[in-house]
Amino acid sequence: MLCPVCNGIRLLEAACSRCLGPLVDCGPERDLADPYAPYGPAAAVSSEALLGELQVEPVCIHRLYCTVCSCSSEAEVALVRQFPHP
Ligand SMILES: [Zn+2]
Ligand SMILES: [Zn+2]
Question: pLDDT tens across 8-63, in order?
Fold first, then answer.
């Protein structure tokens, strides 16, 4: 399993929830904090994570930054199986 964004397979495109400006991908969050820490937008899934930690859907948490209003947010990128060679 790999993150398509970390591996350059696709771009992470998102709009700022405040100003709808383009968000810049600052890279995976997992290097910075515990991915299951209950904070921010990710808190919505934390209860499921606690119930079945072994069955957690593998995601890569990316930190996003808005260059317009300087707010930061997070996005969950679903991991994919390795792409077959074309
Ligand atoms: Zn990633
Ligand atoms: Zn913004």
Answer: 998 998 999 999 999 999 999 865 555 555 555 554 555 555 555 555 678 999 99
Q: Count CB atoms within 10 A of the CB of residue 40.
A: 14
pLDDT of residue 57: 76
Could you give the CA distance from residue 21 to residue 82 in angstroms, rounded to a whole number?
Answer: 32
Residue 72 zone, left/alpha/beta (φ > 0; ψ -120 to 50; rest): beta
Q: For residue 65, give the ligand nearest its CA.
A: 2
- 5 C-alpha vs ligand 1 centroid, how far in Å? 5
Q: Which ligand gives the minimal distance to the CA of 11?
A: 1
Structure letter (DSSP) for residue 15: B
> Could you state, in order of their start, the residue ranges of all structural domains in the chain?
1-86
pLDDT at residue 1 greater than cutoff 60: yes
> For 1-86, where are the alpha helices, taking DSSP H only?
46-51
